[in-house]
Amino acid sequence: xxxxxxxxxxxxxxxxxxxxxxxxxxxxxxxxxxxxxxxxxxxxxxxxxxxxxxxxxxxxxxxxxxxxxxxxxxxxxxxxxxxxxxxxxxxxxxxxxxxxxxxxxxxxxxxxxxxxxxxxxxxxxxxxxxxxxxxxxxxxxxxxxxxxxxxxxxxxxxxxxxxxxxxxxxxxxxxxxxxxxxxxxxxxxxxxxxxxxxxxxxxxxxxxxxxxxxxxxxxxxxxxxxxxxxxxxxxxxxxxxxxxxxxxxxxxxxxxxxxxxxxxxxxxxxxxxxxxxxxxxxxxxxxxxxxxxxxxxxxxxxxxxxxxxxxxxxxxxxxxxx
Length: 322
Ligand SMILES: NC(=O)c1ccc[n+]([C@@H]2O[C@H](COP(=O)([O-])OP(=O)(O)OC[C@H]3O[C@@H](n4cnc5c(N)ncnc54)[C@H](OP(=O)(O)O)[C@@H]3O)[C@@H](O)[C@H]2O)c1
Description:
The chain is α/β, with parallel strands linked by helices. Helices cover 28% and strands 27% of the residues. The protein folds into 2 domains: 2-120 and 286-321, Quinone Oxidoreductase, Chain A, domain 1; 139-260, Rossmann fold, CATH 3.40.50. It has helices at residues 42-49, 114-134, 151-162, 174-182, 196-203, 221-227, 271-286, 302-310, and strands at residues 2-7, 16-21, 30-40, 63-71, 83-87, 97-101, 106-107, 142-145, 166-171, 187-190, 209-214, 228-236, 258-260, 293-298, 317-321. Helix 8 (302-310) links the parallel strand 14 (293-298) and strand 15. The model has no long low-confidence stretch (mean pLDDT 98). NADP nicotinamide-adenine-dinucleotide phosphate (NAP) is lined by residues 41-43, 123, 126, 147, 149-153, 171-172, 176, 215-216, 219, 237-241, 262-264, 309-310, 312, 314.
């Protein structure tokens, strides 16, 4: 027997139950992973509260790291004992052992520890595709990145800064502002007290920014559109404050704007696609990016961890230890 977080209903953190389950045998093309660390991501909240639908009862979670303990038939790329990580795929990371499709596993370089990998894989691959594929940034640009002191945010600040891009980051406290700055954010705006679109106008001398990376959603959507320069792009990649409002296409005409709603899932569907965004991430890690593991919990305390994340009390990455 082993343990997993199981949901029977959607709802608040209390719907997550730590239960004993049987260890299953891997099917064709699958491996069984003995997990050591699991990454906490905001998508886990959407799975738990029903914003993203699961087939209940189900576990949740999209990022784990561990060692392969058994392989199914026809698995060629992975062997027992390999250290692996994964992002996305079937939900179910909140478990001591889990099955996962072998072809979508990432073999971990020896110099990246399990905890570091669980803190940076999903969030770092997200930043990789956002700034290199969705809106490829250019040296000298100023960009707006919301929730700059969050898990995705702190990696984005460091990476963009390395590329010579000036980051304007929104945060909800002085402590978060300091942290974002220490990670390469050039200008911070406390969006609880300041109208961030007006501040962006000031910082850019009235020009606006060519891109807004918005993982906050409902509360920032209108201001993000206002902050864009003509022909700019709103990259609406998340909804930590709730889903953004419906958009009238005509509202984009005045500045001829672009809006996109990208997801990591299509960027990780094949080994080739994963490599395209993981190679630059591993290069960044080798160059010495700071992995801010600012909260650690035992997996059975997932409910507490979700409350802390949803109450905006976390900074950087949160990992579960098993
Ligand atoms: N589309 C994709 O491919 C993809 C992949 C990964 C992540 N994401 C999205 O990226 C965003 C960041 O993910 P993350 O895991 O790194 O989370 P996170 O940024 O560490 O945590 C969410 C942050 O959102 C901010 N926030 C603003 N309003 C909020 C509200 N009403 N309730 C809760 N938080 C609020 C908070 O920062 P402040 O206190 O500073 O405001 C909070 O710390 C999420 O929206 C997530 O869904 C998308």
